[in-house]
Amino acid sequence: MTELPADFRAFHQLYRGPYIHWAELYLASRADAEEAVDQTFEELYLGWADVLQHENPNAYAWVVVKHRTIDYARARGRRPALIDTAAFETAALRDAVDKIGELEQGLHIYAAIRALPERQHDTVVLRYCLGYTVRETADILGVTEAGVRSTTRYARRRLLQILNNSVEGEELR
What we know:
The protein has helices at about 5-25, 30-45, 50-55, 55-75, 80-85, 90-95, 100-115, 120-130, 135-140, 145-170. It is mainly alpha-helical. Helix 1 (about 5-25) packs antiparallel against helix 2 and helix 2 (about 30-45) packs across helix 4 (about 55-75). The termini are far apart.
């Protein structure tokens, strides 16, 4: 058996966990997340020399893992699990006095997150749903920390717009 290149082994060690964490949220299954991510790493390994030629290998790998996870879900006839499960995993819901109100609010928030542009969505999910720091999010996405902070700012503004519009829409009924 051929030993894997040291840089690939290091990349695998650094990013397999966060990729599985994200895929598990998306697929709602640890086993499925591991399988999708492992398939992603097989794909990345087979083209490792090409991956390293990209301007930003981390950003490229992030796109590959996302597409592999989405393809995995589609092949199994699943829709994104984020809106179904994320609201139940928040500490606020577990500790809430008004659990139904918190659940309703959580579902509105997660629906709003799904409506964000892709980069904002990824940043918000990694930062707030999965709890990664700005630095960790930047590493995972292959962007700068300033880019994460800026994207987060725009995402928060957009979420407020989406949520305010949904509240106004409900008041009209």
